[in-house]
């Protein structure tokens, strides 16, 4: 984990992901432009691990007021999505309830500038405790969700339960209804998603800076 903020510094930014390949992509992206301390936390797969890892970090004094972004890969639910598309949640949905996201429109704008050739989709991101395929994917889409992953809902719910803070969820589609993958990183779709994930940090930093500005 990264170092905490020094004296007088603003709240840090915690970026939570599940997989080693996600952490590698985020850590190897462009790091310039951060407005404060940043760390990329690998939580491990699944909602329970995400809850434990995020709760542990936010319980540590230097990170107690951190803004939190859940990131990594996801499964797209809407027809016409492709690997490498970006998902920006306006809310996450899980068994513990719905968590509204902060600054969604600003984050979309920043991502369009950071990754100009990528499609960006906005809507509800739903949590699952297992990989979703076939008919189950269609059922989740019918409920209004545009994408699904295993950690975002648990991450943001845990973050907001630990105290008021800006939260967001940004995921890269690694498979979609017409492009289901067997294993991340072994086919073109996984490689495309990895490249996009490497490019998102400037948008995260812009969102973080804006979240620290006084509200009028």
Helical amount = 25-40%
Largest sheet: 5 strands, mixed, barrel
Q: Whole-number average pLDDT?
A: 87
**Cα-atom Rg, whole angstroms?**
16 Å
Task: Report the sheet-strand fraction.
Answer: 15-25%
Structural class: alpha/beta
- Low-pLDDT ranges: 1-8, 182-187
The secondary-structure element order is EHEHEEEHEHEHEHH
What does the overall shape look like?
globular
Work out the number of β strands: 8
Strand order of the largest sheet: 3-7-6-4-8
**Number of distinct helices:** 7
Architecture overview:
There is one protein chain. The protein is an alpha/beta fold. Helix content is 33%, strand content 25%. It has seven helices and eight strands. It has helices at 20-27, 47-58, 104-114, 134-142, 152-161, 188-198, 201-211, and strands at residues 13-17, 38-42, 67-76, 86-94, 97-100, 120-127, 147-149, 167-175. The chain has a five-stranded mixed barrel with strand order 3-7-6-4-8, surrounded by six helices. Helix 1 packs across helix 6, helix 2 runs parallel beside helix 5 (152-161) and helix 3 (104-114) runs antiparallel to helix 7. The chain is globular. It starts with 12 loop residues before the first strand and ends in a 5-residue tail after the last helix.
């Amino acid at each position: 984990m990264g170092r905490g903020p020094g004296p007088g510094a603003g709240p840090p930014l915690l970026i939570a992901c599940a997989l080693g390949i996600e952490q590698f992509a985020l850590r190897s992206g462009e790091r310039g432009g951060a407005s404060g301390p940043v760390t990329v936390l690998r939580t491990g797969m699944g909602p329970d691990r995400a809850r434990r890892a995020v709760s542990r970090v936010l319980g540590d004094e230097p990170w107690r007021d951190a803004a939190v972004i859940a990131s990594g890969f996801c499964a797209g639910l809407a027809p016409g999505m492709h690997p490498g598309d970006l998902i920006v949640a306006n809310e996450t949905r899980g068994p513990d309830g719905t968590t509204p996201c902060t600054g969604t429109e600003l984050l979309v704008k920043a991502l369009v500038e950071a990754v100009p050739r990528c499609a960006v989709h906005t809507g509800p991101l739903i949590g699952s405790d297992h990989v979703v395929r076939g008919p189950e994917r269609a059922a989740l889409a019918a409920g209004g969700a545009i994408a699904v992953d295993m950690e975002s809902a648990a991450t943001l719910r845990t973050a907001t339960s630990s105290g008021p803070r800006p939260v967001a969820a940004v995921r890269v589609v690694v498979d979609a209804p017409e492009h289901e993958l067997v294993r991340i990183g072994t086919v073109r779709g996984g490689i495309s998603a990895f490249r996009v994930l490497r490019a998102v940090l400037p948008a995260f930093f812009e969102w973080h800076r804006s979240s620290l500005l006084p509200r009028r």
